[in-house]
Specification:
Largest sheet: 7 strands, mixed
Shape: globular
Radius of gyration: 29 Å
Number of strands: 15
Order of helices and strands: HEHHHHEHEHEEEEEEHHEEHEEEE
Structural class: alpha+beta
Number of domains: 2
Strand content: 25-35%
CATH topology of the largest domain: Antithrombin, Chain I, domain 2
Number of helices: 10
């Protein structure tokens, strides 16, 4: 009987070891932390892999808030203001591409560590009257419910890297909030060359290799990097036929004529107001559309851009007319990158960039922090088959100098002096200096 019991025990132990080994060898069926796609299966809390985290944060359930009129108005207004100001800031390269959603997401993640007037400025710039708590909820719901399919893909990913340094302790509540609302991967790293490579590899992966590199280096004073990446890849519902593609003249801002490869076709959605005409062309599945606006002949491009508002864009798209439109659209492909610091300051986010005034104490209570740079990179390919585009926005947070109260005392006129006993402060010697030359 004892022999049978021992044999059974050994068999059970062996089976347990084999099952554990098999579990350890299986790849995880879940996405990498910080990654989301509207192709994903039923939503639910997913534990972020501990290998990527300072601590094993588990996303907590948060409220849902579907896009309503308030969020839509704020989102369009933000998009137009960001676009206009980016255009205004550009001196030479007037061909640009920004992703307002990417920038809003990265800045909202950062704002979760802002307080007082720094927070108020960021809230007003990003959402108008919408408070950050609601903006978090709107973005969480919106990003996770945008449609995605093989023919029209949308995906996003968020991540936070912070420096592994003894005197820099990040507030757990800040990290938890960004895990909850943005499924952000949290990484503690030495901020050396290996960290730069890791960040660039992450960006390359999460932009489908359209943006292979974000950073060249990390500086000594860098403490945190908050990154959002977006990918859009869609086929036209009605592709352009190559037989209707050919070269034609394109006149640039300076009036110079160049040849471009144009695609011709028809759509049934016409846009027009007092200042511009345009069209809308659908991507397959109908979840996404491409809209083009052309200022009327008597309107210069510069003045048209400067007069754009969120309300004008909203009204144009709402009032499209279902008539046949013959269109001609050039193929194009380019990369764009910009530091958004000046753009965002012009939009009202000022204090966060000021090392002496910024209040990002919700990130770290012990180290003065400020935003040193907001890097925005985009890529687009538009051809007869469809459109591929990617964006990445990175908010670099640096440590600021400790602000100490200080005075000035210049002994440049008559003064009194003393030599005192340090135990009692009794003067041992006391005198004046009223003149030099004796």
């Amino acid at each position: 009987m004892n022999l049978i019991r021992k044999t059974l025990s050994l068999l059970l132990a062996a089976a347990l070891l084999l099952s554990l080994a098999a579990c350890g060898s299986q790849p995880s069926p879940t996405q990498a932390p910080g990654t989301a796609s509207t192709q994903s299966t039923a939503p639910g809390p997913k534990k972020v892999q501990a290998a990527d985290l300072l601590e094993a944060f588990t996303p907590q359930p948060v409220a849902e808030k579907k896009a309503d009129d308030a969020f839509i108005r704020a989102g369009i207004d933000w998009a137009v203001r960001l676009f206009k100001e980016t255009y205004a800031q550009e001196k030479d390269n007037k061909t640009l591409l920004v992703s307002p959603l990417s920038v809003m997401t990265a800045l909202s993640m950062t704002a979760n560590g802002a307080k007082n007037n720094t927070l108020a400025e960021m809230e007003k710039a990003l959402g108008g009257e919408i408070k950050l708590e609601d903006l978090n909820t709107y973005l969480h719901t919106y990003l996770n419910t945008l449609p995605s399919s093989e023919k029209a893909k949308f995906s996003f990913a968020n991540a936070i890297w912070f420096k592994d340094q003894a005197d820099f302790t990040v507030e757990e509540s800040f990290l938890q909030k960004n895990v909850d609302y943005f499924n952000a991967a949290i990484r503690k790293a030495p901020f050396d060359d290996a960290t730069v490579r890791e960040i660039n590899q992450w960006v390359d992966q999460h932009t489908d290799h359209m943006i292979p590199k974000l950073l060249n280096q990390l500086k000594e004073e860098d403490r945190m990097l908050l990154v959002n990446a977006l990918v859009f890849d869609a086929k036209w519902a009605d592709p352009f036929e190559e037989a209707y593609c050919g070269e034609a003249v394109f006149t640039n801002l300076k009036g110079q004529e160049n040849l471009a490869t144009y695609m011709s076709g028809e759509v049934y959605s016409y846009l027009e107001d007092e200042e511009a005409v345009g069209f809308v062309k659908d991507y397959e599945g109908g979840a996404y559309r491409f809209a083009a606006l052309l200022p009327k002949d008597d309107k210069s491009f510069e003045s048209y851009i400067s007069a754009l508002t969120g309300e004008k864009i909203s009204n144009l798209l709402k009032n499209e007319t279902a008539v046949k439109v013959h269109i001609s659209l050039p193929k194009f492909s380019y990369d764009y990158d910009i530091s958004l610091n000046d753009t965002l300051m012009a939009l009202g986010i000022k204090e966060a960039f000021n090392a002496e005034k910024a209040d990002l104490s919700g990130i770290c209570a012990d180290t003065p922090l400020f935003i040193s740079n907001v890097i925005h990179k985009t890529h687009i390919d538009l051809d007869s088959e469809g459109t591929r585009a990617a964006a990445v926005t990175a908010v670099m947070v640096n440590c600021g100098a400790m602000i100490e109260e200080w005075k000035e005392v210049y002994l440049d006129r008559p003064f009194v002096y003393m030599i005192v006993d340090s135990a009692t402060n009794l003067p041992i010697f006391m005198g004046t200096v009223t003149d030099f030359g004796r």
